[in-house]
Design brief:
By secondary structure, the protein is α/β, with parallel strands linked by helices. Helix content is 38%, strand content 21%.
Length: 525
């Protein structure tokens, strides 16, 4: 249990959040969400004691232990892999180090004997005799080769080190588990393992993550950091989002009777509660969700962009044929044909292979061999991962910038409307394109893509730099798109809800190509 009382955190004249009074209860998993810069990670640092609040306090249950996923990946470089995991239980590790120092003394005294006896008793109480076996089991579950157990952390590659640090956080069954972006740099199968592990975890979990699929799987509650305040809501991310959007729509529609609005929301709650999926807590969750009332749910103050890729004309019989396509250093002899209604997700051991493949297919880079044949009815629109060429050195404001891609509608009100969809309003539209943040640039590129009205989209890591709200809107736009699509993304929810065919490249060669969902692909051996 974690109790937050009258919490305020202020940097100079800026209050990050104020008057926060919330409680994180045992047996629940809380997903902390909020716009970029809202203070999600900072809030976790306050909870863990890394940052002192300006006012208020954080308290945990008596005798409870909090474990935090280390953000400094080099902090344990002088330890072996096994030592690093054991250090996840700080007190246990301290005992082990002190015991070893005592027993290695040449002049072992009677006082040392008394001290070692006390340490042995505490060691046994903390389940120390099984600790190494537990640590090895965690590493084995995370697919960290046991031959690395005595290897120094500083000698590991980045992906293996992340798994070890995750094992460190999970080790010893902590009472409170605090995880900041735990799925970053994890492969899909490890993320799936972590989801299952956390769904069976019986203590308190507090997570910051941009991975909506992960939040939906593991969370029983959403902790919303919004406009300086923090509120907790029942349900996972999708439940919070859909109910918040439903209430916002109803608030805009004053013609509906209140009884009809209430029935619509209660019907939604009933449907959603039937789908509660947390393994050991499904029954209690369903009861809590089913018992919610209109007063329990409030719409978020946060704004969402509107992403809707309209198709101006349908594609004909021939769409896209790629034959023996080769680009030296990236891929070779890649062939595939796109059929109607296909949305193809690309995976690769090197993301540069996919980016270069998309560039060649869309004609921005020449191939060294092979051919690309587009159907005559296809109008292709390409959103590259690197958009620097569209903004660097550009002295145009946003209205002028977007007008370049709207040949039929040049008047300012029309362009402002499209920018408004992407949350650029008022004087923001006069901002220079060359000073935009990464997320603002991607939102502009999405407006450009929507304006094109193409019936074939190629999207290369479109979620890069976007916050959770924009990613959610983009996901809905990709699902609703009626044309064909090639895309690559690290977002699990997009992969799982959009792709109906998977193509995988390894060492530059196509090794997998099948019509199937991403979830089915992950389940393959």
């Amino acid at each position: 249990m974690v109790q937050v009382t009258d919490l305020c955190l202020q940097f100079a004249s800026r209050k990050l959040f104020d008057e926060v009074n919330i409680k994180f209860n045992n047996g629940n998993c809380y997903g902390v969400i909020g716009a970029n810069g809202a203070g999600k990670s900072t809030f976790l640092k306050v909870l863990s004691g890394e940052i002192e609040p300006t006012r208020g306090n954080v308290s945990i249950g008596k005798g409870e232990r909090m474990s935090v996923l280390a953000q400094n990946q080099n902090a344990s470089d002088d330890l072996t892999v096994l030592q690093a995991v054991l250090k996840g239980h700080v007190r246990l590790y301290e005992i082990m180090v002190e015991k070893e120092a005592l027993y290695s003394k040449e002049d072992f005294t009677e006082e040392d004997g008394i001290r070692s006896a006390d340490l042995e008793a505490e060691f046994a109480e903390l389940n120390g005799w099984e600790s190494e076996a537990e640590a090895e089991m965690l590493l084995n579950d995370l697919k960290v080769d046991n031959t690395l157990n005595d290897t120094l952390m500083g000698e590991l590659d980045a992906k293996t080190k992340v798994k070890v640090l995750l094992a460190q956080a999970l080790f010893g069954n902590p009472d409170i588990l605090v995880l900041d972006e735990p799925t970053n740099n994890l492969d899909a199968k490890t993320v799936r393992w972590l989801e299952n592990y956390l769904m069976d975890f019986e203590n308190t979990i507090i997570i910051v993550s941009h991975n909506r699929h992960f939040l939906n799987k593991v969370c029983t509650h959403i902790c919303d950091v919004d406009f300086g305040h923090i509120h907790i809501f029942m349900g996972n991310y999708d439940f919070w989002y859909e109910t918040s959007q439903l209430l916002a729509r109803q608030a805009r529609d004053q013609n509906k009777k209140s009884e009809a609005r209430a029935k619509e929301l209660q019907d939604f709650i009933s449907r959603f509660s039937a789908n509660a999926s947390k393994s050991k807590q499904a029954t209690s969750r369903k009861k809590e969700l089913a018992g919610l009332t209109l007063n329990d749910i409030k719409p978020s103050m946060r704004k969402y962009p509107f992403v809707d890729f309209k198709v101006e004309r349908e594609v004909g019989r021939e769409i896209l044929i790629v034959e023996n396509l080769t680009k030296k250093g990236y891929f070779e002899n890649v062939s595939f044909m796109v059929k109607h209604d296909e949305k193809i997700a690309f995976l690769a051991d090197k993301s540069t292979s996919i980016s270069m493949l998309f560039e060649v297919i869309n004609g921005t880079t020449e191939a060294d061999g092979g051919s690309v044949t587009w159907g005559k009815t296809v109008t292709s629109t390409y959103l590259p991962e690197n958009n620097d060429q569209f903004f660097n050195g550009c002295d145009l404001n946003l209205v002028q910038w977007l007008s370049q891609y709207s040949p039929n509608e040049q008047y300012e009100e029309f362009i402002r409307g499209w920018l408004g969809r992407m949350l650029f309003s008022g004087e923001e539209v006069k901002k220079s394109a060359k000073v935009l943040s990464g997320g603002e640039k991607v939102r502009c590129m999405l407006a450009r893509t929507m304006l094109a009205g193409g019936n074939f989209l190629t999207l290369d890591e479109p979620t890069n730099h976007l916050d959770l709200e924009a990613i959610t809107a983009l996901n809905k736009g990709m699902i609703n798109f009626k044309g064909n699509m090639l895309f690559a993304t690290h977002d699990q929810e997009i992969m799982g809800t959009v792709a109906n065919r998977i193509i995988e490249l390894k060492d530059g060669k196509k090794v997998f190509d099948k019509e199937m969902s991403y979830d089915d692909y992950i389940d393959l051996d």
